[in-house]
Amino acid sequence: MNITIICVGKIKEKYLKSAIDEYTKRLSRYCKLSIVELGDEKTPDNASEKQEVLIKEKEGEAILKSIKDNMFVIALELKGNMLSSEELSNFIMDLGVKGESNIAFIIGGSLGLSKAVLERSNYKLCFSKMTFPHQLFRVMLLEQVYRGFRIISGEPYHK
What we know:
Layout lengths: L1 E7 L5 H14 L4 E7 L10 H18 L5 E11 L2 H13 L4 E6 L7 H6 L2 E4 L7 H19 L7
Parallel strand pairs: 1-2, 1-4, 3-4, 3-5
């Protein structure tokens, strides 16, 4: 299975890079993982709603260019479906059974995802109603994907 994480923003913090490297190494046993980092647009203080929409649209264009036609796209979205770790594991397994072997997870920038990206997505997933920094969220997503593959494989990790 091919897992691609398309994300807006660069990781600057060493501790986050270290965690991402660790989960990338762990996941290499289960899937081919690619991480596509896209630049984020600068958001001015007190940006108007129109400015925010334009920023999301510009970031969205870059995201859409990174999505291949054969990808099953999962947008990380506050209004998406909330799944337990077991449910996410089953969801990934079911996609594989159905022949969807190229899965892309999309993490937007600080303002979220554009309407066009949400329309292109096949599924919308919400981890929590809480707000997380998108750099930290990348680590959280990798951990949950790793946990999912461990559950699929029947290996100890998930408790």
